[in-house]
Amino acid sequence: LLTRELDAVYERLRADGVEFPRPPQAGKDGMANLAICKDPDGTLIELLEIHPDRWPKPSP
After folding, report:
1. Structural domain containing residue 21
2. Are 7 and 13 in contact (CB under 8 A)?
3. Which of 9, 10, 36, 34 lies closest to 21, judged by CA?
4. How many structural domains does the chain have?
5. 44: domain CATH number?
6. What's the pTM?
7. In whole angstroms, how far apart are CA 38 and each of 23, 59, 60?
8. Which residues are within 8 A (CB) of 16 and not within 5 positions of it... i.e. 6 or more apart?
9. Hey, is 46 helix, strand or coil?
10. Structure confidence by residue, pLDDT tens digits, 14-51
11. Residue 56, helix vs strand vs coil
12. Is 17 part of a structural domain of the chain?
């Protein structure tokens, strides 16, 4: 699921009792941050905040 404010979503969901194995992490390339949580059935859900301004620029 995409979000523009991953840290705020993470804090709100955690306060509501949603389980996260770890806090949000920056991707190794810095182009996105992500967090993984579990829904009530135990299914893993990835939350993603993309930073398009950090993506490589296309070559001319």
Report:
1. 6-53
2. no
3. 36
4. 1
5. 3.30.720
6. 0.81
7. 13, 40, 43
8. none
9. strand
10. 999 999 999 999 988 889 999 999 998 999 999 999 99
11. coil
12. yes
